[in-house]
Write a structure and sequence with these properties.
globular; alpha/beta; single chain; 4 strands; 198 residues
Length: 198
Amino acid sequence: MPILLIASTAVADPVEDITAAARATFDGMPYVRTVDRIADNCGADERVSEQVAYCTSRNLILMAKSAREQPETPYLIAHAYGHAVQVRHGVADFALGQIRRRRDEEAMLRGLVERQVDCIAGYLVARAGLAPMQLGDLVTEEPLTDIHWGRDPLRLGPALSIGLGAREDWFLIGQAGDLAACAQGEFGAELLLAALKP
């Protein structure tokens, strides 16, 4: 009697794919830790995103168990990695210096930071080999308007709205695969390009 071999296909895990892509593309990238809840980790409280947050002082992305199967979670993880790229490779320090010198323009400068983060997120989704994602297909309201990154205590991190349309636009630009297109005003792409692994 012939033996039938049935090939099993592994179920794709976009979170793991994005993590692998981020770590293969840039040095110093965090791992994702699944937690029961974001609050009470890295000084987070109820003001911090309930789904995903990046703790810069521990270089760790926190993901709530309840977020694991949500359709928007791959985007949220990629966005957190976008912040990690900026933090680990000098963009965040430069941005903070500009914000401290130009307090009257803080909202605009933070908006540029968030747009670049969404572009980096799209770039990582493309590098992970995932199908193109339309943010508007994943969410009905702008995500990440609450605190979702910062040092410990995370509850003191920045929160900002740039609009769902802007997030979607820059996420799609990144998915085209050209990191240089992620330049945002005075936050150019030079540091990002220099940080790419050979």
